[in-house]
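Apologies for my clumsy wording, but could you write out the amino acids of a protein and the tokens describing how it folds?
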Amino acid sequence: MTTTMMRLRQHLGLASPAIYTSAIGRLGNNTPHRRRTSTAIFPSSTQKQLLLLVILLFFFVLIPSSVLLPPARPRIMSSSASDSASSAAPFEKPRAVVKKVLAESQPEGQGATVRRSIGRHELRNLDPFLMLDEFSVSKPAGFPDHPHRGFETVTYMLEGAFAHQDFAGHKGTIKTGDVQWMTAGRGIVHSEMPAGDGVQKGLQLWINLSSKDKMIEPRYQELESKDISRAEVDGVEARVIAGEALGAASPVYTRTPTMYVDFTMRPGSRLHQPVPEGWNAFVYVVDGEGVFGREKAAPTAAHHCLVLGPGDGLSVWNRSDRPLRFVLVAGKPLGEPVVQHGPFVMNSRAEIQQAMEDYYYGKNGFERASQWSSSA
């Protein structure tokens, strides 16, 4: 018996092939007797049985089983199988961690201490990123009047508040969750000082500008915490400072194309975040510990900077019993020479020399430098 016939027999509740034989026999034996005039028109009992068998074979063999039988019930994946399938990274080229740097404390400014990761000798820069500091500062320490040229600073307050003033008359206070995106351009002199009692904490990232943008006029983009785009999906919260994540997009304009997202992951959650191919990217762990890049990798704890290799996305797992907080930052490389001297970042030594002269003599963007000092 063919497989198709067996399936139909099971579907109809028939017990065995013998039933077909006896049924055919009964059909032949129970046919009323008629006078035969021609065997062509009135076939014999044996011929009728053969004819019926041919019809049955045609019915079972040539008609697809999908027509005869109800559709198969979809296979329901068990929770463990579903979890295993969804935990696989949905990227063709998942990014892995290629370098791990502990942000160690060092003095900076006036009596202040920062944890620097990018900008140390282990990780001089990561085009287009020049420096990343995690600061934790209390009065009277801080960062009094100092110049910048040739890049942007992004200050993100994690806790507390910082007051800002510059020689063009711009001033303000950024509080917990606020962002200040400052384009220094051709030159600015400013101060950054604690605005409250106790410890003020935050991150400051330096982003390089291309040679064509290094001498543009300074500008600011400031976002209060309430205005930062947010999204939350499956235990993962994203605050999008630049770029896009989890369907939310930032209004910040980035001259150097940049992605900057603050993620908080609940225990047991996981994240698969796309990152533009060809961009350099890193993670800085603010609090907790997580598994980055590969599911079987060792967990990484707070104050570590993880440089990511090439690929189209990053996967993260929080297997701990406490929340994990980290920032994911990526940027399009400029591919230009980087020459840095303190707060000046240009493309050649001659341009650095010119920046120092401009600042000292108060010209080419630093005209107000000699007549101004902050209230700090």
About this structure: Residues 1-42, 58-88 have pLDDT under 50 and may be disordered. The chain has six helices and 26 strands.
